[in-house]
Design brief:
heterodimer, A: alpha/beta, 7-stranded mixed sheet, 3-stranded parallel sheet, globular, B: mainly alpha, 13 helices, 77% helix
Chain lengths: 357, 268
């Protein structure tokens, strides 16, 4: 019994000592209250030089943390253990966080650089008037393929994937909305379609694709495509640019029938303590020169019109990542279909996965 | 020691069981009674009996059966041979060693080995068979799963064989039984307890495998585990995920009862 008490006491004393130590370390390094800004971003999604520059220009100390999925990020923010001042979720996560009251409205008067953002990327269905979010990067879902492995064949549209000559050559990304959306688009429907008949038709169409599908995988898709495990992959454009920088033989195409247009936007979570600093940071990232540098580093498509002008022609003129207006008009943003429909999409996706060759 | 003091020492265990065994199961059952929109309903249970989930259950059972079957087929002779070697503990250690390495790392290693340009295909090319698709097939899925589960099958069988008194075998031989008859009538029945324990330890986790269904089978094999993962992480339909988990718990309990019941009467 005595030992038990002693052990418990020891644990409490050690914990208290550690708590004091972290506190002291934070103070001595200037990580304190108003002068710090906690940023919660995807891994490798900002030029670290810019963080240093922001610290120098504003005198605010940046604490930088990363996440690898919208779901993980939302859970952590909802929990509220750490107070994050800026985060960069994708559009569907934004509409969800908005509904759950996890975001603070953004004061546009404090972000003068907002005028540089292309009007096409403002006021979209997931956040009208950009009350809660400011565009950071955008992209599409499309097809990465290896012309060499296909004997010089080119791919232009979704329906090309159903060709019999492509047996066992396709890797799909493990996302219900991406894959079912692809089938809906191939049939000429909207990828936000909720009509049961259309969805069943899309599932039947997908089942016909089964012999061509080698696997449905997650993040490994980048490694597998770069390693030429399969000739074709259905991926997000951001992943595509990463794959193409690893294996130059590969090419990316935005399918003709139309596809998904996605966004990662900057938001201020409810738990933010340095709201002033968060606005400063968002404004800083929209500065054309800063934004151009970041775009060159990350390799995604920038929504900043002025920054795009500053970028070299081989980036800004690349129609695979900056499609022309005619193509852009066929791109659709995922609408929040509600949990019930999302669940249904996932069940259809499970059914497709279970369909055997 | 007074009985009061003894009861005091029981507190940590009771707390542990309450917090980490009973409470989680109760929570799973509780969550399974709510749909996506948070309404109280039994619809999740109705949904489980639709073709999608029934098919998934069947395929989970089929693959778990195949994995257990092959594990047993490989593990029994292995355990038997180990008991005959000189450095038993060393051999045993060598078999257990791979299970100290993280599962994810092993899965990634197999992607490299089984890939189109991997070691396995290099070998097939060399002996003139030519490149075959190994990764993302039923074969690779079962192979990797068996590889992962073998140590768990070998250990209980090895222990059962070790406990077997050699005098029983001598007696059987003295009475004129052939080696095969001795094995069939004496050794195997007496180690059945180990076999059952091994099968339980393999079959039950094999039912809910999820990560390697994606990494090694490329989502061509769908188990109940995959569906649970998807409902919790992607759809955030915790109700349906929990319902599948409830059924898994029930099935596992059933398997324990069926395989455990006879054991009590049998070996010891």
């Amino acid at each position: 019994m005595k030992q038990l008490v002693r052990m418990t006491a020891a644990v409490i004393i050690i914990t208290a000592a550690l708590l004091y130590l972290t506190n002291w370390l934070n103070t001595s390094q200037g990580f304190r209250g108003k002068d710090t800004l906690t940023i919660y971003n995807w891994g490798d999604y900002i030029d670290p030089e810019l963080l240093a520059r922001f610290e120098k220009e504003t005198g605010i100390k940046v604490i930088y943390q990363t996440f690898d999925s919208n779901e993980a990020m939302m859970t952590k923010i909802a929990q509220g253990g750490t107070s994050y001042d800026v985060s960069i979720p994708s559009e569907y996560a934004i509409s969800k966080m908005k509904q759950e009251g996890l975001l603070l409205p953004i004061d546009h008067s404090k972000i003068p650089n907002l005028k540089y953002v292309d009007k096409r990327f403002m006021d979209l269905s997931f956040d009208h008037d950009n009350q809660y979010s400011i565009p950071y990067f955008w992209g599409t879902v499309g097809i990465v393929y290896n012309p060499e492995m296909l004997g010089g064949r080119e791919i232009h549209k979704w329906s090309d994937l159903w060709d019999e000559s492509l047996r066992n050559q396709i890797l799909l990304v493990d996302g219900a909305r991406e894959v079912i959306g692809m089938s809906l688009n191939a049939l000429g429907y909207s990828l936000n379609d909720t009509d049961e008949g259309h969805l069943q038709e899309a599932l039947r169409r997908l089942n016909l694709l089964t012999p061509n599908v080698k696997a449905i995988v997650g993040d490994e898709i980048k490694m597998l495509l770069a390693g030429e495990e399969a000739a074709i992959g259905v991926v997000w454009s951001g992943d595509a640019s990463e794959i193409m920088s690893e294996n130059e033989k590969l090419d990316y195409v935005v399918p003709k029938e139309g596809t998904n247009l996605w966004f990662d936007n900057m938001v201020i979570p409810k738990s933010a303590t340095n709201i002033e600093g968060a606005h400063k940071f968002i404004n800083f990232m929209l500065d054309p020169e800063v934004n151009a540098q970041n775009t060159e580093y990350v390799g995604y498509s920038t929504p900043n019109a002025k920054a795009l002008e500053l970028l070299p022609e081989d980036i800004s003129g690349d129609e695979r990542f900056y499609p022309d207006p005619e193509m852009t008009s066929k791109l659709e943003v995922y609408e929040n279909l509600g949990p019930r429909m999302l669940s249904h999409y996932n069940e259809l996706f499970l059914e497709f996965k279970m369909h055997r060759k | 020691m007074t009985s009061r003091a003894r009861n005091l020492y029981l507190v940590p265990y009771l707390l542990w069981i309450g917090l980490f065994v009973i409470a989680p199961i109760a929570l799973i059952v509780y969550y399974s009674l709510f749909d996506v929109e948070g309404q109280f309903t039994l619809s999740n249970y109705v949904k489980f009996f639709t073709p999608v989930y029934l098919k998934m259950t069947l395929s989970s059972f089929w693959y778990a059966f195949l994995i257990t079957f092959w594990s047993l087929l490989i593990a029994y002779p292995t355990a038997y041979l180990i008991t005959k070697t000189k450095h038993k503990q060393l051999w045993l250690l060598l078999i257990i060693l791979p299970s100290w390495i993280n599962l994810l790392l092993k899965a990634y290693a197999f992607i490299g080995l089984f890939g189109t340009y991997g070691f396995a295909n290099g070998f097939l090319e060399l002996i003139g068979i030519g490149t075959k698709q190994i990764l993302f097939t039923d074969f690779s899925f079962i192979f990797v799963s068996v590889y992962i589960f073998i140590p768990f099958m070998v250990l209980p069988i090895f222990n059962a064989l070790e406990e077997l008194s050699p005098s029983l075998i001598y007696a059987s031989r003295d009475l004129g039984a052939s080696a095969w008859t001795t094995f069939r009538r004496v050794v195997f029945p007496l180690t059945l307890g180990g076999v059952k324990a091994g099968c339980q330890v393999v079959f039950i986790p094999a039912l809910s495998l999820f990560m390697i269904t994606r990494l090694i089978a490329g989502n061509r094999v769908i188990t109940l585990g995959t569906a649970i993962e998807q409902h919790f992480l992607v759809t955030q339909d915790w109700g349906m995920g929990a319902t599948i988990a409830v059924f898994l718990v029930l099935m596992m309990a059933l398997i324990m009862i069926v395989t455990g019941g006879r054991k009590a009467r049998g070996t010891k």
